[in-house]
Each structure stands twice: as C-alpha cells, then as structure tokens.
Design brief:
61% helix; four-stranded mixed beta sheet
Length: 479
C-alpha cells in the first residue's frame, strides 16, 4: 500500500505542477498576503530586528508570514543562482514559490492516509480516503495560487492525527500546538480547529481529561503568548490585543447563506464527486446502525459539527460569512467518511465493487479538473499581449472597476483583464474589432463563492464574462 500511496502522491504533485505552470499566480485577492514574506526576509537580511518582529508578527494569519518568508528565501536563492535579480524577476517568476506551496495540498492527501490509519482503518481503506481527496477539485484548483489555505489544513490534519491517539500530556500539548499553528496560518479554519480540539478531549479518559486538556490549552496558547511577548518587548501593541477581533471575520457576502453556500460551492466544484460522498456517507450511516462489531469513529459527526459551526457563525451570530475557501474544510472529513463503506466492501471480499466506485471518482475528477486546467488569467494574458504589442489601454464591461490613469497611447485595449471587485451593471466595451478573446476566470463558478453576494454571482454568470483584446476604432474611448 505504501508504494501505491507514493505513486498517488507523485501523480498529485505532477497534476498540481502542471496547473501552476499554466499560470494564475497573483490573481486571487488573498495572494497579497504572500508578499509580506518578502518584507520579513528583507528586514532579516538588513538585521533590522525591531522591524523584523513587526513584519513577521502581523496579527492576521501570522504563521503564513513565516512560511512565505521561507519560501521567498528559496525563490530568491534560485533567482540569484541563475544570475537574475529579485527586483526585476520576482513577480515574473511567482510560479517558483507556487510550485513549493502546492506541496501543502499534496501533504494534505498524505496526511489523510495517516489520519485514517490512526482512526483504525485498514491500509486499503486509508488509501481510498487519500485517493478520494486527490480527486477533489476543491483541493486542486486553489493550489496554483500563493495562498495559505492548504498550509493551514496540512497542520490541522497533523493535529488531527495526534488528537486521535491520546497518550501522554506531551502528546496533548503537541496537539494543541499544531492546532495553534494551523489556526494562525489561516484563521478562517476556526471551525476545523475547534473540532480537532474537541475530538481530542472527547477521546481522553475522563480521569485524564482535565490535566491533558490543560496541556492542550498550553500548547495552543504557546505561539500567541510568544508573539505577544515579542511585540510587547519592542514597544508595539501586544500581538494578542492587535489580533483581537481579526480572526478572519469575513463580512463580504451574505450572512444568510451560511446554511446553503457550502453545498452550492461544493456542487459547483465537485459535481458528481459530491453526490458520491453523500451516497457513501448514507451507506456508512446505515452500516453503523446495523453493525454488531465494536464501534468505529464515525466521521459524519465531526463533519456535521463543522457545518453546524459555520451555520452558527453566519446565519445565527452574523459574525462570519461563509466562503468557498472556508466550506472546503469539510472535504477531508467527507473523504474519510466516504472511504469507510469502501473498506467494508473490501472486508467482505468484494474489492471489485470498491475499485469500481473509486474508478468512477477518478473519472469524475478528470472531468472536474479540465476547467481549471484550461483557464487563462488576466495578468498572464496582459504580459503576453504587452510582450508582443507594448503597453495597451484597459477597460471593463462591468461598471465600477477602476482602470489605470493615464492610459498609454495604443490602438489596442484589453477589456476585463483584472479581478472583478465591483459589479455596478454592464457597460459596452470600447468600439473596435475583437482580435482575441479568453473566458475570464470568474466563468469558473467556484471562484464566484469568494465574497460575492448571491445576486452578484447570478449577474456575473449571466454576463458571460470574457477578457477581450480589441483594436480600437479611431473614436473609441475605453471606460
């Protein structure tokens, strides 16, 4: 099974690296956080220790600053070895750090195998869980971007593996520490963090729950306390006070979608794979009710707990809008849940049935992966056009989005060549002849679940958004 797992992970690396090399870096709004790592590295190189602490310990998603700094150091080392400069080539070679960060997505697949084994699964069932996560589009298309979501989930899955095997107080402390690292890498995973901490406490014997729970709390609090001491020592606002209320409180979007958005998002990305998870989950629930053997961990319970927490934070408390990037934290547990009835089939001597279901999952994944693999992104298109024609004018067919001013003098205009932030209605493109056209990334529906309200999503879907290269008429004026 280990050979099969290694082959699966290598295949997943290859797919993600192909995706990265097709571009898309510096498109997603959250990718700005990656650039903080460059600031951390620069202050370290200049031995400006006070500014280093300030740059490294920004209170939002703090641990990702340190990851980004390490990845940036390798990136700049590669550029230096090639005789290139960071100032001239950093943004042109963002695919290099993207290749490295994509490995966190693959690491999540490997960790799912280990978590399943720790929960009592056979090696075959654990491999099925890893394969199902490898077939998830949610854990595929984000890996081309310079984002913190997969790194956070990787650390939280390490914490989950530790949490499932209660041992010494040190183990509980390490569980808390890894939960803290995962949460501080991306604070939007607060629900998954709470569930892991809760699962560890629940699985502890009642006589040890207090002492081990205290050790877990110490582990979780270790980095926040360390960060608070460090920022206080240089005279800045203590980290804990600065971070208060910043736990990724997303307010863009609609609070009332908390109950529906996870399913709408997962359907838009996974299609038939979501139906497969639901079918296998229902099958596992039925098996658990009929089984006479010792009870096993039912992954449906923590999965539905995460969903309930998201609904609570959004629909009930109106504190945190649910986005696609947050809803995807349900996916690893869905894969663990779906693998359990496959393990049951194999234990009954019916590996062919389990294999057929996994082949269906792979076929569905191949269909789902085609769309993100075929996307072109605004920055990559702009570079391509300007390399051939020089600077061109820019415009939008979606009103409310600002264009650079002043515009260069050019007979060509790129339309919709950026992320669409505002949606104040449609407007006509500049008059002229369309030389080329590319579907905008927002035509890939999962991207529409990142801060857009339901009516805005509907509007953008009806707009059939494209990036256009237009040869302007003599009287045309870009908007």
């Amino acid at each position: 099974m280990k050979v099969a797992l290694v082959l699966l992970l290598l295949a997943c690396i290859a797919l993600r690296w192909v995706l990265v090399l097709k571009g898309g870096q510096w498109y997603h709004p959250d990718e700005f956080r990656f650039i903080f790592g460059r600031g951390v590295l620069r202050t370290l190189q200049l031995h400006q220790w006070q500014r280093f602490i300030q740059a490294a310990l920004r209170p939002r998603h703090t641990f990702f600053n340190l990851i980004a700094a390490g990845v940036t150091a390798i990136h700049m080392g590669i550029l230096a070895a090639q005789g290139r400069t960071a100032e001239g080539d950093f943004f042109q070679t963002l695919w290099i750090p993207a290749l490295m960060l994509s490995l966190f997505s693959v690491g999540c697949i490997g960790m799912i195998y280990r978590v399943a084994i720790r929960a009592g699964a056979t090696a075959v069932e654990a491999l099925a869980a890893a394969l199902l996560l490898g077939c998830s589009a949610c854990f595929f298309y984000f890996s081309r971007h310079l984002l913190d979501y997969d790194a956070s989930m990787f650390f939280l899955l390490i914490a989950l593996e530790l949490a499932l095997q209660p041992g010494s107080r040190w183990r509980s402390g390490w569980t808390g520490l890894m939960c803290g690292i995962g949460f501080l890498t991306y604070m939007g995973h607060w629900a998954f963090t709470l569930v892991v901490l809760g699962m560890h406490l629940y699985r502890l014997p009642s006589a040890r729950r207090w002492s081990h729970g205290l050790a877990m709390a110490y582990g979780f609090a270790f980095l926040p306390v360390l960060f608070t001491i460090a920022t206080g020592a240089i005279g800045d606002e203590p980290w804990l006070l600065a971070a208060k209320g910043i736990a990724d409180r997303g307010t863009d979007g609609d609070f009332n979608e908390g109950w529906s958005l996870p399913w709408a998002y997962l359907w838009s990305a996974e299609h038939g794979v979501l139906l497969l998870w639901v079918f296998l989950g229902a099958w596992q629930w039925r098996l658990s009710r009929r089984s006479q053997s010792p009870p096993r961990l039912q992954w449906m319970v923590p999965l539905l707990t995460i969903y309930g927490l998201l609904v609570l934070g959004s629909n009930v408390m109106h504190y945190n809008v649910v986005y696609g990037r947050i809803a995807r934290e349900m996916v690893p547990l869905a894969c663990l849940m779906a693998a359990q009835p496959l393990g049951h089939l194999i234990s009954l001597g019916k590996p062919g049935g389990a294999g057929a279901i996994l082949l269906v999952a792979v076929a569905m994944a191949a269909f789902n992966f085609r769309a993100p693999l075929s996307l072109s992104f605004p920055l990559d298109i702009r570079r391509q056009v300007e390399a051939e024609h020089g600077p061109v004018q820019r415009a939008f067919t979606i009103a409310g989005n600002a264009v650079p001013s002043p515009q260069p003098k050019s007979p060509l205009c790129l339309v919709n060549d950026d992320y669409i932030f505002a949606c104040d209605g449609l407007q006509a493109p500049p008059a002229g002849r369309v030389l080329d056209s590319w579907p905008h990334p927002l035509t890939y529906t999962p991207y529409l679940f990142e801060g857009y309200r339901p009516e805005t999503r509907d509007f953008l879907q009806r707009a059939d958004l494209h990036i256009l290269l237009i040869e302007l008429s003599p009287t045309a004026s870009p908007k």
